[in-house]
Amino acid sequence: MARLSAHRRLRRALGSAAVATALVAGLTAATTAVAAPPRSDDPRSWERALQEEVDAASAARMSEAMSVHPGLVGTEGAARRAEYSVDMLTSWGLDAKLESYDVHASVPRGVSVTMTGPERRTLEVKEPPFPWHENFDDVVVGYNAYSPAGDVTAEVVYVNYGLPEDYAKLEELGVDVEGRIVLARYGNSFRGVKSKVAEEHGAAGVILYSDPADDGFTRGPVYPDGPWRNADGIQRGSVQYIFNYPGDPLTPGEPSIPGTPRLDPSEAENLPGVPTTPISYGQARHLLAALEGPRAPEGWQGGLDLDYRVGPGPTTVDLDLDIDYERIPVNDVVVEIPGSVHPEQKVVLGAHYDSWTYGTKDDVSGWTTLMETARAMSVLLDRGWRPERTIVLAGWDGEEYGLLGATEWAEQHRADLIENAVVYLNMDGAGGGRNFSAGSVPALDEVLVDIAKTVEDPHHGTVYANWQQSSGKQRPVPDRLGSGSDYTAFLDHLGIASADFGTSTPSGEYHSAYDDLHMMRNFLDPGYTYHAVAAAYAGTFALRMADSDVLPMTYSDYAVEVVRHLRALDEAQADAAVVDLRPAYDAARDWRAATRQLENAAVRAEGHGLDAINDALIAQERALIQEEGLPGREWFKHMVYAPGLYTGYAVQPLSAIDDAIAAGDAATAAKYRDLLVESMRQAADTARHAAMR
Ligand SMILES: [Zn+2]
Questions:
Q1: CA of 518 to the centre of ligand 1 (A)
Q2: pTM listed for this prediction
């Protein structure tokens, strides 16, 4: 894979600006037409100018250029993408640089899965190529990043989705997984959670597979004739325990740069303990068809034409994972557009550019979209626009292995971000399909809806109309953020108001070799229409946050949402009260009153009064951070939002109190209620102080 030499070549290439300009000279034609500057008395005119500038054909060219080679972190393909991105951004006159880390990560040397009983069969661990696939040798075999190496032979047990309740069901059926290899289907939880739950039950190995009931032929035509997963498609993915902490396993809370002390791998609490690997449903079929033992419950029957049984055996498997661990380079691409009035305040937008395979959807689409936004901003800069606050545009590396690049960057810039970051917008999969969706903290609901109403969507009229149809709701609002993408360090670790949006078409290419140009052009975003729509949406958000006199953040909505979360907890303890939540309701209502005062004061504020109000708005989210962190995972410091320990991706609001209620642990529940109260009091004090100036 020649990772280190690729890294050195990249460094050399970036030293040559002339090469950069020559490389992209043919791609800048769209930026040459200079229109008159928009009217300065209309604050939305620059937003409209940006919306008019973004261009589907420009996004398509970048998507095509980046999809020629697979872009796995630590390989030459990822280095090539970073180089291309810096070249393009530089050619538009933007100030692009690399920020690099060296991160402890797994490197697969050989993966083999052999069925050893009742018959012998070597299973395929990589998809076959189609004629249009270039550089297919560089597509990594199906494997799960951060799985430990291992060579185990054991009987197989089918465990459905591998959730805690699935193991409880197996116990009822009298089936023990101790020392056995569990076969779990993807879905309903983060794959690292499946590995962890298997570890807790003493399994010797884990095989993950994509059942056709979830994203295969039962949903519709399969690749290459349709967008659904075919019998060969393998879902790769990380099994890092990101619900403990993401990023470099050896430097939690610190950037992995020279001089940072490293843990011994045996001390790292986000490394999984059981060898885990993924296969396709075409291969899993052989294992399932031979299983005997009790018939699997009705809800466990998948989409394959066979009777699912749980085993154990007589299916046996030899799982042989030859995986090394070493430090790999992680290179973030970072552009800063300095603010003219508040250069210290930062509006940060990010998308990861690394991918499991070609990654035309995940996440070349998000990064291409953000690059197109950057190009449009460069045109606005030529016409005289200057953002009032600094805009930072970031291409993250290593997201797929465990949010590596974004986490290390956030940890490195912690002090500055805590002091000055206004907001973080994440774009994982943005542009790669037709249905709009968004997630955020409640303070950003209103602005995300407002912007959706102003951005055009050629098929729906507006993005908002798209969102209504995609969500099936008359008044769609963003979901709440759990984890699984690069906003995690910004929101959960540093307390920066965060949002995430994407566009998607129902499909089954996720993390397979078939997340490629054929898929994008034919099924996901033909014509690259939604790449342009998403670029307009992201750009409008950036301009709105950078140029508004009063930051469009509504913390009174946040306080109302916390009351809703508290009610859900009270419902959960309706039968047996564990903790008295009244002090938290009181604090939330007082926080709402204080933030209403702040919002009213903002209407008539000017000059320094305005600065104080914006500072107080920025400080609101930060107040929800408590240094102590969540029980057993102190990297997660946000008192309202975190991913669930047993969901991994999905959000679990007020998770410390919720878990303590479920465990009947009154002391922990009261402790985290008090920390929540303290956070909301501090936020309310800050809001009131600024409102009364
Ligand atoms: Zn992604």
A1: 18
A2: 0.93
